[in-house]
Design a protein that fits this description.
Length: 439
């Protein structure tokens, strides 16, 4: 085993992916370098997710595997980072007492010192740093995974406290970054050679409300969109209650801004939305989507949805099915409700039976998959602008990239076009996107 190497596993959302880049950058400053496999690494890091039970169980499974590696070489250091560390530190201590460092998502500024301390003395109790009122210091190093697309955080935390969601407890109250700091990070990424930037936040639409003076997200988009070298601009995630007509109009005024909007609906029933604490109605949501499609006819709209929220009746689930029939999302991330300890929904009685939740989820998945395929098949023959990400692992001689609508395009090519933007004529349409040919 090489003495100073690290291996990082990331679970969950793009916010976690960006945090893992920071973790890697911090380890780089300690003269470590990434290992290809866990068994090669001195430092093992799992960046965890607590949104649902499944990623938590994945985390414990991986930690169990790493425990075996640590038994083989006690010098190994196991780090548990991310949302699970923040909300389940006591559980981690019980189920994975061999973890050396447990650190929350807002405490990464203290990771370097914790690692150095553990290298110097690999005995004693775990180092636990979980304070979600901390602010991440500016200027933390980052080890980006490629030179094409860069993630840039614009705000941290969330103030919405939806009934089912653990994120506000895991990532703390919402705090907007200073615009100049966001712009500087974007400019640095572009000067390094990145061509695409994705602005990240639990709720990007509420960016700037806590600044002095306040600033709208639309204004930040205009500033980032004007940076030289920017070819593509994306953002996620939007909350329907905070999206504005001005934001939709601004999207059309920025040439680099991609025609894609991720807008979680969560339910198509107004009573369920109220009990979830979402702050909008299905009618309002539908109006937003209609307005977006009016100003940007080529836009793709994706969503998140949950079935089986406590007390959801068959009629209320049918309202969600009707909403999906009517709105016709390009893609949806679909889940069945599960209790998250510490949330309001976990205390709501009248739980939907597991078998019924699974039945509803399967019914919704079938509907949405058919809609997604139909949408993509309807655009066969159209030419799309594609940012090439690299070779497709499953198709010899083919490259893989994404359209401005954030759909995958796979096409044959005789030269490496990675990092370039090319025009591709869409061929056969699938659930995930298209195969095609260079136009």
């Amino acid at each position: 085993m090489k003495p100073y190497t690290y291996f990082i596993v990331t679970l969950g959302c793009q916010m976690n992916e960006r945090d893992s880049e920071t973790i890697a950058g911090i380890l780089d400053t300690l003269d470590m370098y990434p290992a290809r496999e866990a068994w090669e690494a001195r430092v093992l890091v799992i960046n965890t997710c607590s949104v649902r039970a499944k990623p938590e169980e994945k985390a414990y499974s991986r930690l169990g595997q790493w425990h075996t590696l640590k038994q083989d070489d006690p010098r190994r250091i196991i780090v548990v980072a991310g949302c699970m560390s923040q909300v389940a530190a006591a559980d981690i201590a019980q189920r994975a007492p061999y973890a050396d460092i447990v650190i929350g998502p807002r405490n990464l500024g203290q990771l370097q010192q914790a690692i150095s301390q553990r290298i110097a003395d690999n005995t004693g109790d775990p180092i636990v740093i979980v304070d979600n009122t901390d602010l991440l210091p500016e200027g933390l190093p980052a080890h980006h995974s490629d030179g094409i697309s860069a993630f840039v955080n614009i705000n941290y935390g969330c103030d919405n406290y939806c009934a089912y969601c653990i994120v506000p407890y895991a990532r703390g109250p919402e705090v907007s970054r200073i615009p100049a700091e966001v712009i500087a990070e974007c400019r640095d990424a572009l000067e390094t050679g990145y061509v695409e930037i994705t602005l990240l936040g639990q709720n990007v639409n509420s960016y700037g409300h806590d600044l002095h003076p306040t600033m709208e997200f639309a204004d930040l988009l205009l500033e980032v969109g004007a940076l030289p070298g920017l070819r593509r601009l994306r953002f996620t995630t939007s909350h329907p209650k905070d999206i504005s007509w001005r934001l939709l109009q601004t999207m059309t005024a920025i040439p680099a801004l991609c025609e894609h909007l991720h807008l979680p609906i969560q339910s198509g029933d107004n009573e369920i939305l109220t009990r979830m604490g979402r702050g909008y109605t299905c009618e309002h949501f539908t109006q937003i989507v209609s307005a977006a499609r009016t100003v940007m006819p080529a836009i793709s709209v994706t969503t998140d949805v949950m079935v089986g929220f406590p007390g959801e009746t068959t009629a209320q689930f049918d309202n969600t099915m009707r909403a999906f029939h009517s709105i016709r999302f390009d893609q949806a991330f679909m889940f069945k409700y599960n209790d998250r300890p510490g949330t309001r929904a976990a205390e709501i009685p009248d739980k939907v039976p597991e078998e019924e939740k699974q039945h509803r989820l399967a019914e919704l998945i079938e509907l949405q998959n058919n809609i997604g395929r139909d949408i993509n098949r309807a655009t066969q023959g159209q030419v799309f602008e594609v940012l090439v990400e690299g070779p497709d692992r499953k198709t010899p001689g083919a490259l893989r990239g994404r359209t401005r609508q954030n759909k995958i395009m796979i096409f044959p090519a005789t030269t490496d076009l990675t990092g370039r933007i090319v025009n591709v004529r869409a061929g056969e349409g699938f659930l995930w996107g298209h195969t095609g040919e260079l136009a």
